[in-house]
Write a structure and sequence with these properties.
Layout lengths: L4 H5 L5 H15 L6 H24 L6 H20 L1
Helix pairs in contact: 2-3, 3-4
């Protein structure tokens, strides 16, 4: 996506948000993928859920149980085909 590490680290919105936004834009603008619009929608939905789970696991004082772990794995597996089509 032609971003250097220093460009990503210098953002105020955070590296994760910059990467997610850039990947989403790349998916949406992929003219080779007939389902780019749907993939973009699905990407945003899945990545939002994964972000929430990561924030819960990393920053909140809650139990990250087997159910949440399995949900994270399932969402990641759903995301892989979208990323491969991009």
């Amino acid at each position: 996506m032609k971003k250097t590490e220093s460009e990503l680290m210098g953002t105020k919105t955070g590296v994760h948000n910059v990467l997610i936004n850039n990947i989403g834009q790349y998916i949406r603008s992929n003219q080779k993928n007939r389902n780019a619009r749907q993939d973009f929608h699905d990407f945003n939905n899945i990545i939002t859920q994964l972000k929430k789970l990561r924030i819960d696991a990393d920053y909140k004082d809650t139990v990250f149980d087997l159910r949440k772990s399995q949900n994270s794995i399932t969402l990641a597996k759903e995301l892989l085909p979208i990323l491969k089509r991009a």
